[in-house]
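testing teh design pipeline on a random one, pls ignore if ur not involved
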């Protein structure tokens, strides 16, 4: 009798072990599957090129104030939003540094540091920072791309964007220009192009820069340049 009880006990124990192993195996399989899915999702996200679009200034920092009272921060944001739309339509993943009228933090220096941090942490294929220019001589006009002096990739991107922007800025004679003093260019670890879309100190250009039609045209031309750069690598 005792022998039979022992045998039954052993059988029950074996069945419990088998059930536990099976459950553990299923859990391990599911866990591995989930991990693989997560990894795949991460890879998928970067199968598309990533571009950061930076709308300069914001909040209490209006940037340049146009002869028509236009605020640079508002013009920058409008063009940046259109640029995001055009790039996404062409299968580019876009991250914005700001999507409303506020800046990232209250202080100007802190705001720039946050932008640099966001860019460096995300390691985009390219960053385009949208700005407007100003000069004491009202006759000066035209769009111009700036890049960090020691970045070959940024130089290539800036030259391409400068070329495509001329389809909109048809009277512009400016060329892409190297710079080693702008904070955003010096402190970032990836190719960055600062795109000065026009002069708010020039009345004719300032009036165009506040119109939806011209903002969209500029954004589309910049997007064309970004795509050409990405495809050239």
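output:
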């Amino acid at each position: 009798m005792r022998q039979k009880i022992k045998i039954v006990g052993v059988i029950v124990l074996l069945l419990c072990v088998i059930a536990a192993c099976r459950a553990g195996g299923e859990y391990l399989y599911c866990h591995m599957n989930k991990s693989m899915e997560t990894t795949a999702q991460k890879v998928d996200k970067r199968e598309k090129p990533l571009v950061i679009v930076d709308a300069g200034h914001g909040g209490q920092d209006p940037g340049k104030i146009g002869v028509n009272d236009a605020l640079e921060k508002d013009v920058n944001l409008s063009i940046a939003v259109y640029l995001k739309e055009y790039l996404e339509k062409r299968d580019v993943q876009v991250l914005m540094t700001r999507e409303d009228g506020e800046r990232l933090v209250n202080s100007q220096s802190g705001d720039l540091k946050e932008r640099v941090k966001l860019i460096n942490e995300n390691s985009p294929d390219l960053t385009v920072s949208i700005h407007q220019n100003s000069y004491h001589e009202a006759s000066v006009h035209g769009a111009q791309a700036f890049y960090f002096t020691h970045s070959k990739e940024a130089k290539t991107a800036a030259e391409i964007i400068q070329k495509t922007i001329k389809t909109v800025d048809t009277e512009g004679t400016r060329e892409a220009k190297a710079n080693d003093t702008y904070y955003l260019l010096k402190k970032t670890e990836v190719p960055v192009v600062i795109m000065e879309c026009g002069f708010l100190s020039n009345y004719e250009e300032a009036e165009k820069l506040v119109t939806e039609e011209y903002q969209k045209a500029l954004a589309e031309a910049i997007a064309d340049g970004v795509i050409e750069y990405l495809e050239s690598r």
